């Protein structure tokens, strides 16, 4: 989880590979109207995100994910995260923390991506950092991807006290 440009796709891809878990790219589940809005520099609303979160929740449901799942999702607000937790109680969140200037620089350096750099400020205005929430690993998103992946794999395997606890063997999730 985290704002646009924090590294969700890059880190998730490497994590899924390292863990041997399935990978889902949350952006692929936005409604076409939402993608068009973001392309036009119009921020999504709670209403725009409701159906999207429902679709992501279905990917995390225990019956849909007997093995572990890595899902990229901005999950900017507490209620969005709680919607996903409802679907998978063992869900853990990796919060890739990045400041505004760095996020803007990364998004501006990505020509061809649908997400308008004009929306980075709104991402920060919407973000409710997951401070104090259980099952959250917060990482400095400026660290090299390989270091971030090592930290996440260690966390998932129980190397940190706040690691997500699977509800049953061989099930789990991370966003
Ligand atoms: N740890 C990192 N260090 C340096 N550059 C990074 C790091 N992680 C990602 N990047 C670069 O930052 C840019 C954004 O990364 P990425 O697309 O993975 O972010 P994202 O959070 O998935 O963004 P979005 O949600 O907007 O799709 C890419 O150009 C990527 O190569
Ligand atoms: O909730 C949101 O506002 C969206 O999910 C965005 O975060 C973008 O889709 C993503 O970052 C792509 O760049």
From TrEMBL:
Coiled coil: none annotated. Its EC number is 2.7.1.12. GO terms for biological process: carbohydrate metabolic process. It comes from the Bacteria. Pathway: Carbohydrate acid metabolism. Gene3D superfamilies: P-loop containing nucleotide triphosphate hydrolases (3.40.50.300). One of its GO terms (cellular component) is cytoplasm. It catalyses: D-gluconate + ATP = 6-phospho-D-gluconate + ADP + H(+). The keyword Lipid metabolism does not apply. This is Gluconokinase.
């Amino acid at each position: 989880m985290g704002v646009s440009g924090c590294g969700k796709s890059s880190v998730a891809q490497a994590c899924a590979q390292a863990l041997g878990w399935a990978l889902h790219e949350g952006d692929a589940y936005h409604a076409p109207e939402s993608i068009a809005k973001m392309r036009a520099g119009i921020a999504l609303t709670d209403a725009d995100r409701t159906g999207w979160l429902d679709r992501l929740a279905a990917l995390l449901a225990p019956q849909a994910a007997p093995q572990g799942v890595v899902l990229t999702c901005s999950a900017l607000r507490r209620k969005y995260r709680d919607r996903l937790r409802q679907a998978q109680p063992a869900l853990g969140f990796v919060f890739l923390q990045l400041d505004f200037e760095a996020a803007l620089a990364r998004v501006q350096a990505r020509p061809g991506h649908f997400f308008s750099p004009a929306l980075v400020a709104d991402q920060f205005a919407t973000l409710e950092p997951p401070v104090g929430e259980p099952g959250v690993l917060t990482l400095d998103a400026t660290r090299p991807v390989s270091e971030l992946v090592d930290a996440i794999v260690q966390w998932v395997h129980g190397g940190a006290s706040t690691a997500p606890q699977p509800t049953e063997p061989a099930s789990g999730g991370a966003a």
